[in-house]
Amino acid sequence: MLSIKMIGRHAMSSLAGKQGPRYRHTADDGAPYETIAVEKLTPIIGAEISGVDIGRLVEGDSRSNRQMDEIHRALAENLVIFFRDQHITPKQHLAFGRKFGELHFHPAAPHEDEDPALMKIYADKDSPRANGEGWHSDVSCDLEPPMGSILYIKQCPPRGGDTLFANMYAAYDALSDRMKAYLDGLSALHDGEPIYRGLYANYGVADRPSYPHAEHPVVRTHPVTGRKALYVNRGFTRHINGIPRDESDAMLAYLYLHAENPLFQCRFRWTENAIAFWDNRCTQHRAMWDYWPHTRSGTRVTVKGERPV
User: Fold this and answer.
1) 56-70, 111-125, 153-167: which is most confident
2) Key word Iron present in the record (predicted)?
3) Residue from 104, 106, 136, 286 carrying the catalytic annotation
4) Which residue, of 91, 152, 212, 286, has the fewest CB within 10 Å?
């Protein structure tokens, strides 16, 4: 039986060989942008957006409408987009999120007094851990997981505290045809209890009678792009349905390591007053907790999504 170490080595090495990498990204820049500037972080995932003032954008005018259309497009093409030097109020942060849909309330995390949809992000020298330090897709344990998340960091450490993002289209595309055939049609249980009972125990959620859980396809189809994406993550996925538990454990171990291959990733170095907006339907992410004893703080707005299919 393959050990986890052997599985991991295979996951990291099997994308390349004498014929080159199995996953080949083909760039398609499409039509030029007219109201924003888009600078890709990598060919695979991520782009920095400039020429946008989010505070003015949410006030709404004809140019704002055109910019919103192009921001939608940039998100679809790059999966996660970043805006630097944005000085927005909590009200403007919420308004920007509502431009993309109804807002999602986190089932466990603390929130600001202004609105329960405004989630607090905070870690300092007294924090035992930081939010989101393991690979995950936000609240995938919900029956209708969030479409996207918009994180605004107001205070960041001088070094560290980066966030990594991974492209789950690319992770799926890089699988062999036989593996794709095996996974297509399978579902998995996503359960929030293990992480919420522990991570958010200090916020009064440890003694809840129930926690969100749902079954989702292992491979989901994006409702906008129509592309298939791998949809299992370490944070919330517990087991694959319909197969023996040891087979599920081995398969999930392989898929997690495969999805976390650096080939599929970008890494964002935060600066104060920067914003990251990612599509939870086709990405995973993790925050680095490497900046103790410094402080990292901000707020997050999350946009409701649909049931994965």
Assistant:
1) 153-167
2) yes
3) 136
4) 91
d(CA 119, CA 103): 11
213 an active-site residue?
Answer: no
CATH number of the domain residue 218 falls in: 3.60.130.10
279 carries an active-site annotation: no
Residue 309 lies in a domain: no
Annotated catalytic residue, options 93, 190, 286, 300:
300
Q: 258, 285, 286, 296: which is the annotated catalytic residue?
A: 285
Instruction: Spot the catalytic one: 104, 106, 138, 234.
Output: 138
Which segment, 126-130, 140-144, 277-281, is predicted with the most confidence on average? Answer: 277-281
Query: CA 34 → CA 52, 59, 63, 70, 88, distances in Å?
Result: 12, 20, 10, 8, 24
| 126 carries an active-site annotation | no
pLDDT in tens, 121-131: 888 888 766 77
Note the pLDDT tens digit of each residue in 158-214: 999 999 999 999 999 999 999 999 999 999 999 988 777 766 565 555 566 667 889
- Domain region containing 229: 35-303
Number of domains in the chain: 1
